[in-house]
Each structure stands twice: as structure tokens, then as C-alpha cells.
Amino acid sequence: MAALLLLLCISIPIYAQRNSMIQNKYVTIYGQKIHYLEAGSGPYLILLHAVGADASEWTRVIEPLAQHYHVIAPDQVGFGQSDKPYVNYRMQT
Fold first, then answer.
1. Do residues 40 and 15 make contact, with C-beta atoms less than 8 angstroms apart?
2. 4, 6, 70, 75: which has the highest count of C-beta atoms within 10 A?
3. How many CB atoms lie within 10 A of CB 22?
4. Phi and psi of 29, rounded to 5°?
5. Residues forming beta bridges with residue 32, ordered by sequence position
6. 9-35 confidence digits (pLDDT tens)
């Protein structure tokens, strides 16, 4: 099912909804500002985007998942609204 959700999120354009329960937040980790989306309560569920994407890829599924989970979808360093430091971007980074 996770693979299906990932496939749907990659192939369908994602748009933020008005009156959304999804919150835009920021945290600083190792001196880098990291943006993330957060919604819901319960057990934590972390959604990671693919290379070349950002957290907005998960917008369409966050609210349904947030009915049962505390969902967090970060923009990984170098992507989306997170800081883009001058580093060697590799899968390991």
C-alpha cells in the first residue's frame, strides 16, 4: 500500500487546500533551517519525499492519514523550503 501511495503522490499534481489542517513549520538542525508539514495526532508517521521532490508531494494524503497518525513530511536539506547549503548532494547526504 505504501508503494501505491508513493506512486499516486508522484503521478498526481498536488495542491495545498484552503482551510487545511496541515501546518507549515520550521526547525533548525545542525545550523540548517528545515521546513516540514505536520498534521494529526497519534503514532508518528514520517513521509519522506523522493530525490528532486519536496514535502508538497504528500499534501493530498496527509489529511486522510492525519485522522489516525501524527504525520510529519519534511523537505529534506537542499529541497523545497529547507535550507540549501553548499554541500556535495549525494544519496548519503
1. no
2. 75
3. 20
4. -130, 125
5. 29
6. 443 334 444 447 999 999 998 899 999
